[in-house]
Write a sequence for this structure.
C-alpha cells in the first residue's frame, strides 16, 4: 500500500506546484472498520467497511484550498489537486492578512502503535460469541428490559507528504467495546453501562483490550444496578461535596478543559457552530484555572499511553508532543497548529491537527488531554469525606458555546457519609462554571486509580468530523458544587 | 449607502462564475451497471446493493474572511447478502472488479459468521414510489467563486456594522441507487444549498441559517442582515433570574428541541421500552394544538421516498391534536408486531428498526410579532445549543440559549439577556403551546431538518444563567 500511496501523493504534489500552490500537503488514507452489536440476545449490526482516498490541501494566492477524491487514477488525483488550487484562489477573494505557518522540519518516518492481537484476525464468531454471552448475562437479571452490547475496530493506514519534504507513513489500530442494561419500570428508564457509557472504552490497542475488560464478568452487576436504580434515593438539590469517578471526570476534562483550549475556537474560527472560548489569549500564563494540585497536559506521545489521541505525527506533519495546559493550577498552554501558533507568538505548532478521513480538512483536535494523577488512595479519599455524593458514568452532558457553564448527569451516584459509601442515588446531576469548578478541587487520586479513557465521538468542524480523543483521569473531589438542578420539576 | 444597500448592490454585480464547478455525478444508468456487476459476482441467496455518489463543497468563513474551503467527490458501494437466515453488510469506495468481488465476499463471510435469525424476512420485490423533484442544476453547478463572492458580500455587511461574521456556504449534489436481486430498484437524487451565519459584536451575537434544494431560493444576504440585526439587538445583555418563563421559540429552536422526539415514534423503540411513548399511545400527552406528521413528500421536506430496504415511505399521522396515534414500522418490526410496514425501516442489519425522518409539525397563523405583542414578560429565543437528554421517559432535555436571546416586556422586545440553561420536558413543552406560527422548513444544528412553526410556550424551565 505504501508504494501506491507514495505514487498518489507524488501526482498530487506535482500538479499543485504546477498550478501555483506555494504550499501543499497530501493525506492518502486507507480506513478499515468493523462494527458488531447485539440487542436482546440477537445480532444487531454486523458490518465492515473500507475507504481509500486522497485529500489535498494547498495555499495559493495566500489562501487555503482543499479537495478530496476517491478516483485514484493519475487523472483523478491530478484533477483533485487542480481543484484544490482553484478553490484556494477563490478563497483569496476574501483573505485577510498574510497567512504565516510556524516553521517545521521535514520528516521521513514510519510509525505504528503497538498491539498484541490484531482485532481483524480474531474470528467474527468468537467476537459475537463474547457479545452474546455478555448480553445473555445481563438479560438474566429480572427487571432488565433491554440489553445491548457492541464492539468496534478501526485501522487507519495513512501517508502524509508535504511540499516542505515530509513523507510520513503511519498505521493506527483502534479497539473498543461496551455493554448496556436498561430497565423500564415505575414510569422511568434507568440504565447502567460498562466500562463506560456511549460505546464503552476505546483505545489505540488490539483485541487484548476487549479481553482485559471482561464484559461477561461485569454484565450481571450492570444489570442489577440498572434495576436497583428504580428504588434508589433521588439526588437531592443543593450545594454539596462531589466526588467524580474517573469515567465521568474524563468527560468533564474533555468539555471544560479540552475544548476551551483549542486555539481555533479562541481565534473565532469555529464561532458559527462549535463556538468560541472564554480562554481569550490574555489569560495565557495568568489565569488561575484550578487549584494548585491540578495539572493537565495534552500529550499525544505513546509514553502517555495508548489513547485515542496518541500518534507519531499530526495530520500537518508535526511530531507528537506533550503540551502543559494547566501547571499547578495556572493556565499555561493551548492546542495549536502551524497556522494559529504564530498568531499568539509561539515558535512551533503544538501538533494537534487531525482529520477524520481523507475527505476532510485537518483541524485542531484534542490529543490526550489528561489530568495528571494526584496522591490519594481512593479508600482514603472516601474515608476523608464526611458528606458527599460520588457520581459515576456519564448520562448527559451539555456546556455553553464559550465553555463556561456546564451541566452533567450520571447513571448512578452513591452517598458518602462519615467516610463510608452509603445508599445508591438515582438521577444524579451537577452543574457549575468551569473555572469555579476546577478551583474547588481539593483531592485527586493517584496513579493506581488513573485510566486513560477514550472518547470516540467528539464532533467538531463544518462539515462535522467525528474524532477520538483521550482523557486520563483518576477519581477527584470537588467542594461546594451545585447538584440536582437537572431533575427539579 | 447603507450596509444592506451595499450588499444588494454587490449581489446585483454577482455573475455565474466560470470557476471549477463540482464534478459530474455518475448517472443512475451508471449506478445500475455497477449494481448489475455485483449481482453477477454474488452467489448468496439474496443480494442488496446501495450506491451513493457525492459531490459536495463547503466554504467556511470567520473573522470576515474565508479560512477553510473544501470540495469532495466520493462513492460508497454497500452490499448486503443473505445466507440461510443470516445477513450482513460490507461497504467499499472502490469500484474496480477486484474490489467489488472482495466486498461481496466480505458481506458473505460476515453473514455466515453469526447464528441464524428466524425473524429475517426475504428481501422485498419491485415497488412504486412517489415522484419528488429535489435536484437542481443551479445548485449542482455552483462554483467556489460563486460562494466566495457571496461571502465577500456578507463580510462587507459585517464590517460596515462593526461586526465579525462567521459561517458556512455549502452546495452539493447527491445521487443514490438501492437495488436487490429480487428486482427492486429505487433511485433518488437531490441537491442541497445551505447558508449559516453568526454575527458577533463586542458582547453580543446573532445567527441565521437556511437550506434549500435550489440555491436560487437561498438568500444569504437576507440571512446575514437578520443575524446582524440580532447582534445589534443583544448588545449589553442583562442578566435575568432563572425560573419559569413564557418563551417565544423561533423555528430553529423548536426544530432542535422537538426533533429529539423522532426516534420515540419508532415501533422498535416502544417495543424495547426506551421510548417516551411507551404506555402513552392513545393518551393525551400534548396540547390540543399539536399535530405531527411524517411526510417525505411535503413540499418543504427533503429525503428519498423509500426506506433502507426500498419500501415506499408513507405519510403517517404521528400525533393528532395532542394524542400519539401511530408509530412507524419497518418490514421486520411490522411482521413481529402484526402491523403493516410504513416504509421507515433503516438499512439492514441494525438493532434500531425504523424512524420517521421527515417530521412536519402543523403550524398556526400567529406571526412572531403577534406572539411578542401578546407577551407581558417572556424570553424570545433564536437558537438552542448542546441539547442532551436528561430523562428519557419524561423527555427532559437540557441545553443553552445562544446567539440572540431577548427579554420581552409589555408586548415588546426590550433588549438582549445573558444566555440561560434550560431543563425542559418536551412533552410538557408541547402541552403548553399558546400560539403557533406558520410551519416553515427549519434549519438548526442538533436535529435533522423538519417543517416546524415558531411557537409561544408558557412555563418554560430555565435553571441557570451563564456569563455572557
Amino acid at each position: 500500500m505504501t508504494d501506491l500511496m507514495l505514487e498518489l501523493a507524488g501526482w498530487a504534489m506535482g500538479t499543485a506546484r504546477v498550478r501555483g500552490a506555494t504550499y501543499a500537503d497530501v493525506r492518502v488514507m486507507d480506513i478499515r472498520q468493523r462494527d458488531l452489536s447485539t440487542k436482546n440476545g440477537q445480532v444487531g449490526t454486523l458490518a465492515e467497511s473500507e475507504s481509500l482516498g486522497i485529500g489535498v490541501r494547498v495555499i495559493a494566492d495566500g489562501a487555503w484550498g482543499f479537495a478530496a477524491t476517491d478516483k485514484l487514477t493519475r487523472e483523478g488525483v491530478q484533477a483533485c489537486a487542480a481543484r484544490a488550487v482553484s478553490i484556494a484562489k477563490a478563497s483569496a477573494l476574501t483573505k485577510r492578512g498574510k497567512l504565516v505557518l510556524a516553521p517545521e522540519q521535514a520528516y521521513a518516518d514510519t510509525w505504528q502503535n503497538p498491539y498484541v492481537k490484531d482485532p481483524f484476525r480474531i474470528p467474527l464468531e468468537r467476537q459475537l460469541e463474547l457479545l452474546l454471552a455478555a448480553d445473555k448475562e445481563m438479560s438474566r437479571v429480572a427487571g432488565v428490559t433491554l440489553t445491548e452490547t457492541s464492539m468496534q475496530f478501526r485501522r487507519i493506514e495513512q501517508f502524509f507528504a508535504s511540499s516542505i519534504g515530509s513523507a510520513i507513513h503511519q498505521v493506527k489500530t483502534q479497539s473498543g467495546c461496551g455493554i448496556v442494561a436498561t430497565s423500564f419500570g415505575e414510569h422511568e428508564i434507568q440504565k447502567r453501562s460498562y466500562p463506560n457509557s456511549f460505546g464503552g472504552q476505546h483505545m489505540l490497542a488490539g483485541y487484548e483490550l476487549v479481553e482485559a475488560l471482561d464484559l461477561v464478568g461485569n454484565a450481571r452487576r450492570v444489570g442489577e444496578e440498572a434495576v436497583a436504580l428504580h428504588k434508589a434515593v433521588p439526588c437531592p438539590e443543593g450545594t454539596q461535596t462531589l466526588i467524580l469517578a474517573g469515567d465521568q471526570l474524563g468527560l468533564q476534562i474533555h468539555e471544560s478543559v479540552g475544548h476551551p483550549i483549542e486555539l481555533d475556537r479562541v481565534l473565532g474560527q469555529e464561532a458559527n457552530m462549535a463556538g468560541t472560548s472564554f480562554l481569550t489569549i490574555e489569560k495565557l500564563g495568568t489565569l488561575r484555572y484550578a487549584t494548585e494540585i491540578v495539572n493537565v497536559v495534552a500529550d499525544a506521545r505513546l509514553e502517555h499511553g495508548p489513547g485515542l489521541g496518541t500518534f507519531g505525527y499530526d495530520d500537518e506533519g508535526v511530531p507528537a508532543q506533550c503540551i502543559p495546559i494547566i501547571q499547578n493550577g495556572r493556565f499555561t498552554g493551548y492546542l495549536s497548529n502551524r497556522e494559529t501558533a504564530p498568531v499568539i507568538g509561539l515558535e512551533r505548532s503544538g501538533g494537534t491537527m487531525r482529520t477524520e478521513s481523507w475527505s476532510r480538512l485537518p483541524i485542531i483536535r484534542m490529543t490526550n488531554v489528561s489530568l495528571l494523577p494526584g496522591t490519594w488512595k481512593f479508600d482514603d479519599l472516601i474515608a476523608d469525606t464526611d458528606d458527599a455524593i460520588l457520581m459515576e458514568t456519564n448520562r448527559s452532558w451539555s456546556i455553553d458555546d464559550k465553555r463556561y457553564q456546564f451541566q452533567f448527569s450520571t447513571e448512578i451516584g452513591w452517598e458518602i457519609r462519615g467516610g463510608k459509601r452509603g445508599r445508591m442515588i438515582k438521577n444524579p446531576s451537577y452543574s457549575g462554571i468551569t473555572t469555579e469548578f476546577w478551583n474547588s478541587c481539593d483531592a485527586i487520586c493517584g496513579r493506581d486509580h488513573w485510566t486513560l479513557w477514550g472518547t470516540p465521538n467528539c464532533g467538531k468542524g463544518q462539515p462535522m468530523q467525528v474524532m477520538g480523543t483521550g482523557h486520563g483521569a483518576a477519581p477527584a473531589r470537588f467542594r461546594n458544587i451545585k447538584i440536582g438542578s437537572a431533575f427539579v420539576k | 449607502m447603507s450596509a444592506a444597500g451595499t450588499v444588494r448592490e454587490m449581489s446585483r454585480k454577482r455573475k455565474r462564475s466560470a470557476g471549477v464547478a463540482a464534478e459530474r455525478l455518475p448517472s443512475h444508468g451508471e449506478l445500475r451497471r455497477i449494481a448489475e456487476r455485483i449481482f453477477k459476482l454474488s452467489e448468496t441467496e439474496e443480494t442488496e446493493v446501495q450506491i451513493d455518489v457525492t459531490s459536495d463543497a463547503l466554504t467556511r468563513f470567520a473573522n470576515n474572511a474565508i479560512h477553510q474551503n473544501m470540495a469532495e467527490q466520493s462513492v460508497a458501494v454497500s452490499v448486503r447478502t443473505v445466507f440461510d437466515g443470516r445477513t450482513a453488510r460490507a461497504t467499499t469506495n472502490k469500484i474496480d472488479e477486484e474490489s467489488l468481488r472482495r466486498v461481496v465476499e466480505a458481506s458473505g463471510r460476515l453473514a455466515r459468521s453469526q447464528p441464524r435469525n428466524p425473524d429475517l424476512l426475504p428481501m422485498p420485490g419491485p415497488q412504486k414510489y412517489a415522484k419528488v423533484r429535489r435536484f437542481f442544476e443551479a445548485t449542482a453547478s455552483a462554483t467556489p467563486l460563486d460562494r466566495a463572492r457571496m461571502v465577500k458580500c456578507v463580510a462587507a455587511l459585517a464590517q460596515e456594522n462593526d461586526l465579525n461574521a462567521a459561517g458556512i456556504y455549502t452546495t452539493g449534489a447527491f445521487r443514490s441507487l438501492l437495488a436487490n436481486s429480487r428486482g427492486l430498484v429505487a433511485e433518488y437524487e437531490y441537491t442541497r444549498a445551505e447558508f449559516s451565519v453568526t454575527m458577533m459584536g463586542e458582547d453580543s451575537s446573532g445567527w441565521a441559517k437556511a437550506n434549500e434544494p435550489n440555491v436560487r431560493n437561498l438568500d444569504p444576504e437576507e440571512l446575514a442582515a437578520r443575524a446582524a440585526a440580532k447582534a445589534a439587538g443583544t448588545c449589553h445583555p442583562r442578566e435575568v433570574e432563572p425560573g419559569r418563563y413564557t418563551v417565544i421559540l423561533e423555528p430553529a429552536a423548536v426544530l432542535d428541541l422537538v426533533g429529539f422526539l423522532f426516534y420515540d415514534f419508532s415501533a422498535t423503540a416502544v417495543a424495547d421500552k426506551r421510548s417516551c411513548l411507551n404506555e402513552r399511545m392513545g393518551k393525551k400527552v400534548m396540547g390540543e394544538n399539536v399535530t405531527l406528521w411524517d411526510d417525505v413528500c411535503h413540499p418543504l421536506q427533503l429525503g428519498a421516498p423509500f426506506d433502507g430496504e426500498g419500501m415506499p415511505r408513507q405519510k403517517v399521522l404521528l400525533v393528532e391534536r395532542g394524542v400519539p396515534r401511530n408509530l412507524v414500522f419497518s418490514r421486520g418490526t411490522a411482521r413481529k408486531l402484526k402491523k403493516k410496514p410504513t416504509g421507515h425501516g433503516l438499512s439492514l442489519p441494525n438493532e434500531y428498526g425504523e424512524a420517521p425522518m421527515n417530521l412536519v409539525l402543523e403550524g398556526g397563523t400567529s406571526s412572531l410579532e403577534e406572539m411578542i405583542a401578546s407577551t407581558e414578560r417572556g424570553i424570545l429565543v433564536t437558537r438552542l445549543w448542546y441539547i442532551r437528554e436528561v430523562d428519557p421517559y419524561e423527555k427532559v432535555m437540557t441545553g443553552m440559549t445562544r446567539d440572540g436571546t431577548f427579554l420581552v416586556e409589555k408586548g415588546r422586545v426590550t433588549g438582549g439577556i445573558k444566555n440561560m440553561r434550560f431543563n425542559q420536558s418536551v412533552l410538557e413543552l408541547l402541552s403548553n403551546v399558546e400560539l403557533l406560527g406558520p410551519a416553515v422548513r427549519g434549519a438548526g444544528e442538533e436535529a435533522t431538518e423538519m417543517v416546524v412553526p415558531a411557537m409561544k410556550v408558557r412555563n418554560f424551565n430555565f435553571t441557570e444563567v451563564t456569563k455572557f
